[in-house]
Amino acid sequence: MNKLKISDVIEYVEENIGSFHERKLKNLEELKLKNILKRKNPYLFKAKNILTSHDLVKSLLDAHLSSQEEAIFGEFLEGLAIFVCSKVYRGQKSSAEGIDLEFLKNGVKYIVTIKSGPNWGNSSQIKKMLDNFRRAKKILGTSSSKTNIVAINGCCYGIDNKPEKNEYLKLCGQRFWEFISCEENLYTEIIEPLGHKAREKNNEFMEKYSQIVNKFTYDFGREFSENGKIDWKKLVRFNSLKG
């Protein structure tokens, strides 16, 4: 085990956080209005009493971007966790299906699936994770029969005060970051460098976001409004009419 240098973590974050902002901006630039309209629930927005094209477009866009942003940032946090563990326990990205990280600690082989937060999946997704754990254990067990293998569901934020599950440990927030780094306060120390150039990147994003909102509002108004009112039936037919 090696002592983690916080300066290494800060350097990694500052060098790589730009990729999160770049991917978020690229995702925005590649959006097509009709693709979003096909994926979102028109009944929900009608029930919210949205009356203008601008408000509807902004609501659709924000809902889409929120889910995309969470996924993109989750990948960044996964990379950060692997980096931290590589410095301390020589952890590495796993080649096993569905396993993000593997490392040896105190004679135990840990296989880790990394998620952003604790409430990440439904029963079928958790079942798939368990299947991945079992498969990885079987493969690793045949190559090293003397090594004890423990499965971990690591969550980068949140709390689960009952970490012992039937076939794996669920370590969230402080527990997870401390487990892969042996640093009790790492979970708070990584927050500050995440803001590296955030204002500059956010200003760039908001400028492009405003352009997209204006363009989509214009396009939506031409296609799905009549006499200044949203044509909800036309929108629902576009979204749901069988082909």
Structure explained in plain terms:
- The chain is α/β, with parallel strands linked by helices.
- It has one domain (6-240).
- The protein has helices at 6-29, 33-39, 42-47, 53-89, 123-143, 174-181, 186-189, 198-224, 232-240, and strands at residues 92-93, 101-105, 108-115, 148-155, 169-172, 225-226, 229-230.
- Strands 1-2-3-4-5 form a five-stranded mixed β-sheet, with helices on both faces.
- Helix 1 packs parallel to helix 8 and helix 4 runs antiparallel to helix 8 (198-224).
- The longest helix has 37 residues, at 53-89.
- Determine the fraction of residues in helical runs and give it as a percent range: 55-70%
Report how far apart the termini are: 60 Å
* Principal-axes shape call: elongated
Radius of gyration: 22 Å
- Tally of DSSP β-strands: 7
Chain-averaged pLDDT: 92
Instruction: Give the topology string: H per helix, E per strand.
Output: HHHHEEEHEEHHHEEH
Q: Count of helices? A: 9
Strand order, biggest sheet? Answer: 1-2-3-4-5
Number of domains: 1
What percent of residues are in strands? 5-15%
Structural class: alpha/beta
Q: Main beta sheet, described?
A: 5 strands, mixed
Quickly list its features.
243 residues, alpha/beta, five-stranded mixed β-sheet, two-stranded antiparallel sheet, 9 helices, 7 strands
Secondary-structure topology with pairs:
Blueprint lengths: L5 H24 L3 H7 L2 H6 L5 H37 L2 E2 L7 E5 L2 E8 L7 H21 L4 E8 L13 E4 L1 H8 L4 H4 L8 H27 E2 L2 E2 L1 H9 L3
Parallel strand pairs: 3-4, 4-5
Antiparallel strand pairs: 1-2, 2-3, 6-7
Helix pairs in contact: 1-4, 1-8, 4-8
